[in-house]
Amino acid sequence: MKPIKVFIVACLLFSTQAFAQNLKVAVAANLQSVIKVLQKDFKQKTGIEIEPIVGSSGNLTAQVRNGAPYDVFLSADMTFPETLFKEGFSAKKPVVYAQGSLIICSKQDIGFENWERVLMTERIKKIAIANPAIAPYGKAAEESLKDKGILNDVKSKIVYGESISQVNTYITTGVVEVGFTTQALVKDPANKIQLYWKPIDPKTYAPIEQGMVLLKHANNSSDAEKFYQYILSSAAKAIFEEYGYRLR
Questions:
Q1: How far apart, in Å, are the Cα atoms of 96 and each of 108, 119, 174, 210, 215?
Q2: Could you tell me the CATH number of the domain that includes residue 200?
Q3: In the predicted model, what is the mean pLDDT of residues 228-234?
Q4: Number of separate domains in the chain
Q5: Per-state percent for the chain, helix, strand, coil, to nearest 5
Q6: Does 89 share its domain with 178?
């Protein structure tokens, strides 16, 4: 009987491990490259595997509202996490984990010293911006264009991407002459494409304070709490800085 009991216990353990789910982390599109580094570092430190689901912050928020089984949400702003907290999807208030940096970027060396003038020339036919309704970096781009007084002048040239990752595709494939994106694109070692860029004056747009929230779906998961604390750790902060993010 003893061998049979051992066999049954072994089967139960195997079954539990086989059906164990990875930690599901909803990740704003601007973190598409950096989350891979964070994922690897977190696993090395804890042995815990995360499953990143990447998308625009607005779309990910809508998915949470519709019952998506996410444990942690890393947004590109604080508005969406705060909304989820107010609506009862989190028992813990969101926190800022990094500040984003907006840049103007192109595959062409078009000269960005007076980028607002360049955008108004016939040379520039398409300008990529993430949808400002669901992507905070798109909202920041429109704020900057408005601050420069040229938003209405270039409106007809704007091509809206579903997320910042789509904007990056438009830029790196040359579908558009220029686009507004995150500094993480040009800081990513995996990007081998020659890009020309300039940081946008942060005074021309509201600070991109990126927020994190621990969702109720985590159900007091110790793994989710460990990842939450990891993102606030010095190790994670060092990685964020490498990719051009600013820290408080």
A1: 34, 33, 34, 5, 15
A2: 3.40.190.10
A3: 97
A4: 2
A5: 45, 20, 35
A6: no
